[in-house]
């Protein structure tokens, strides 16, 4: 039964009918115009026929129309475009009458397309209701649905891949024996051969993807744009197998589009970048948003000279001058990932460079500590990867030994010196610590960009690129290092291993929060006692945040698996919803970070940290390049637990106590007293007592000035200072003199963003 989608609610609809057609590769060809604040160009999508159609095609073609019904329930489409139709292609006179457009109407449609006014209706089909009426009157044309929002779609056309020079090699395959010689079938077979090339021919595959994307069009397709979708069909084509498997969409973004933000950097220069919007990338390009639509991509982006284009890509792109004042940047990826992970940033970024001998020394220093996990990798190297075929680093002997992958840092001009002093030295340390913990880096390189001040988070990780807020730079290395470790952890959990259902955010954020402590401790090369003390202190701070959030948020938003037993389920067409994906309060909540972290911490304490981290490495080896549900991780982990240690642990009990309920989990309530025994916490408690006593003394004798030598306050670590300030804020009254003394004692204005907050 189809999911009833209602965009007026707080759930984010994923409209793409991935069960019938699944995108395998995108080729973007775009121009960035800062004057009009528009990204314009084309995207070519290469498809394979989806699994649901393959299963049901023998039973009849009617079921392929179910997605048509769903899109009709989404409300009125904004407009629909009908290309000029050759009468000879119509199968009946009635069809020709339904879709023919007069000369005047063609002009009106063309004018509207150039104006991109979604408020005015074009001639022909003007709403989803009309589309449904046509379908109900006997037209069984297959409808391709893509996720799309805030875009002006200009034209959709089939791509004549058969016209590409040298493409005939894909038509000689034995698989084509007995296939109809119809040109449409030939084109689809070429696309099939291309998207299924073996991994060792990935360079050849990218070459032909690019040239196919530049092939001429061979007929416009009908399309309509709705609130959340782009719907495409071809007259007379009734099945996904016969629908064009290579289509080109010409479009423009809108300045108000929610996937990117147009702003200025800290030096006052214009820039644009993807902001990690709740609607993901559907306002940047038409795509299939469901996580199951794992795809590769390549992109050529043109912009004015002086701008630098950074993107999710395996290559460190170098600009090519097309003509005076215009540069082109080219990126690609060969590892299939959800379209939501695609990231772009265009601005006057400056590369922050470090003296080469310093960088080499940092790498050499940290590589020694990572040798044990390299040996761990060798124990698993014979395992066959479980993902779809691609050139995988886990199967590359050189990649398995690479403790520090190549990296670059970019920032606005005014922040270059700060980045060189604080950020650059941390990157090799954190990368090496991550490698020592989890083994092979899933991605071959890393760019780190300090994004504009309007960025609403401390960081965001995407394939091959990390965005960091300027807020992580002041106040020493602590906040910068921990946040960098958090985002690096997403390379494994969130990117290389993704959630099959986006409502299970804890799989990404909980793991990254847990691992940031492990990585950062190793990067600092702390002793065992220092590591334990810092982690207990951090746990107490996080428990206090979780407690406050639980007390001040809706219960339904506190559940880590809100769909419970329905988690991971899709409608027949592949459409689904991200529960509470558009709820405004959810953007600011940390429950998935915190409860996820505490669950993983609880499991590590139950099992023991060493065997637990060994299980994590084993899990990474087995599931990298794949999408998972909570039970995939928990089932594998529990199999590795000795019976005497995990006698009470089952997947069901973890669901019940941690993932499927609101509030603070009961096992966590039982643990909170243990943090008072932490030496770093006791140190803070002692300092708090001094400050409270001093505050009371000043209040009693307000006319007397407090002498600086009366009380000696100890210096504190950043996390200790946060805890101290939280304790002091619980006091009813603090004298102005105490506030001034706090400022002088701890130099609060020079501390990091968490202390300042």
Automatic annotation (TrEMBL):
GO terms for cellular component: nucleolus. It comes from the Eukaryota. Residues 111-126 have a biased composition (Polar residues). Residues 107-126 are annotated as: Disordered. Keywords: Aminopeptidase, Hydrolase, Protease. It holds the Pfam family Peptidase_M1. Residues 441-658 form the Peptidase M1 membrane alanine aminopeptidase domain. GO terms for molecular function: metalloaminopeptidase activity; zinc ion binding. This is AMPO Aminopeptidase. The lineage of its organism: Eukaryota, Metazoa, Chordata, Craniata, Vertebrata.
């Amino acid at each position: 039964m189809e999911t009833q989608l209602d965009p007026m609610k707080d759930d984010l609809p994923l409209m793409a009918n991935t069960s019938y057609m699944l995108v395998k590769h995108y080729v973007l060809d775009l121009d960035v115009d800062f004057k009009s604040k528009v990204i314009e160009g084309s995207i070519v999508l290469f498809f394979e026929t989806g699994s649901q159609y393959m299963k049901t095609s023998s039973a009849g073609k009617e079921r392929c129309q179910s997605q048509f019904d769903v899109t009709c329930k989404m409300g009125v489409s904004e407009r629909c475009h009908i290309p000029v139709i050759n009468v000879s292609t119509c199968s009946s006179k009635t069809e020709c009458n339904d879709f023919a457009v007069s000369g005047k109407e063609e002009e009106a449609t063309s004018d509207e397309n150039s104006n991109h006014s979604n408020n005015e209706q074009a001639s022909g089909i003007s709403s989803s209701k009309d589309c449904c009426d046509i379908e109900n009157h006997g037209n069984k044309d297959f409808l391709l649905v893509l996720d799309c929002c805030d875009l002006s779609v200009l034209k959709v056309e089939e791509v004549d891949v058969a016209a590409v020079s040298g493409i005939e090699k894909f038509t000689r395959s034995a698989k084509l024996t007995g296939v109809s010689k119809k040109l449409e079938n030939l084109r689809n077979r070429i696309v099939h051969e291309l998207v299924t090339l073996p991994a060792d021919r990935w360079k050849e595959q990218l070459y032909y993807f690019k040239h196919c994307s530049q092939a001429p069009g061979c007929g416009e397709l009908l399309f309509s744009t709705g609130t959340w979708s782009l719907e495409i069909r071809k007259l007379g084509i009734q099945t996904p197998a016969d629908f064009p498997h290579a289509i080109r969409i010409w479009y423009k973004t809108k300045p108000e589009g929610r996937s990117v933000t147009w702003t200025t950097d800290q030096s006052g220069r214009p820039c644009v970048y993807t902001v990690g919007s709740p609607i993901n990338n559907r306002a940047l390009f038409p795509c299939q948003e469901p996580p199951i639509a794992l795809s590769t991509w390549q992109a050529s982006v043109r912009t004015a000279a002086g701008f630098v284009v950074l993107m999710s890509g395996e290559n460190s792109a170098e600009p090519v001058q097309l003509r005076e004042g215009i540069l082109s940047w080219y990126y690609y990826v060969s590892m299939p990932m959800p379209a939501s992970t695609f990231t772009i940033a265009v601005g006057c970024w400056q590369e922050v460079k470090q003296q080469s001998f310093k960088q080499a020394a940092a790498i050499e220093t940290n590589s020694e500590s990572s040798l044990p996990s390299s040996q761990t990798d060798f124990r698993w190297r014979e395992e066959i990867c479980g993902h779809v075929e691609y050139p995988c680093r886990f199967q590359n002997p050189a990649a398995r030994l690479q403790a520090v992958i190549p990296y670059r840092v970019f920032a606005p001009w005014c922040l270059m010196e700060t980045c060189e002093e604080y950020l650059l030295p941390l990157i090799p340390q954190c990368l090496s610590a991550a490698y020592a913990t989890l083994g092979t880096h899933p991605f071959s390189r890393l760019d780190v960009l300090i994004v504009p001040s309007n960025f609403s988070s401390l960081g965001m990780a995407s394939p091959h690129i990390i965005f960091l807020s300027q807020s992580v730079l002041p106040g020493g290395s602590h906040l910068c290092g921990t946040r960098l470790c958090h985002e690096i952890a997403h390379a494994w959990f969130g990117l290389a291993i993704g959630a099959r259902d986006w409502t299970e955010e804890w799989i990404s954020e909980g793991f990254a929060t847990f691992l940031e402590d492990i990585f950062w401790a190793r990067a600092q090369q702390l002793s065992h006692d220092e590591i334990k003390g810092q982690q207990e202190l951090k746990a107490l701070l996080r428990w206090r945040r979780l407690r406050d959030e639980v007390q001040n948020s809706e219960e339904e938003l506190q559940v880590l698996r809100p769909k419970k037993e329905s988690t991971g389920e899709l409608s027949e067409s592949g459409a689904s919803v991200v529960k509470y994906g558009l709820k405004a309060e959810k953007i600011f909540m940390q429950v998935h970070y915190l409860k996820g972290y505490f669950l993983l911490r609880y499991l590590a304490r139950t099992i023991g940290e060493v065997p637990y981290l060994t299980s994590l490495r084993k899990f990474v080896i087995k599931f990298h390049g794949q999408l998972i549900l909570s039970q995939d991780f928990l089932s594998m982990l529990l199999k590795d637990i000795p019976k005497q240690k995990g006698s009470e642990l089952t997947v069901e009990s973890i669901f019940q106590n941690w993932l499927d309920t609101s509030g603070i989990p009961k096992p966590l309530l039982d643990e909170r007293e243990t943090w008072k025994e932490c030496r770093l916490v006791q140190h803070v408690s002692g300092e708090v007592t001094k400050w409270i006593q001093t505050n009371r003394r000043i209040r009693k004798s307000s006319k007397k000035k407090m002498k600086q030598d009366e009380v000696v306050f100890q210096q504190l670590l950043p996390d200790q200072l946060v805890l101290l300030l939280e304790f002091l804020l619980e006091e009813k009254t603090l004298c102005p003199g105490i506030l001034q003394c706090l400022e002088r004692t701890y130099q609060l204005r020079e501390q990091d963003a968490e202390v300042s907050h």
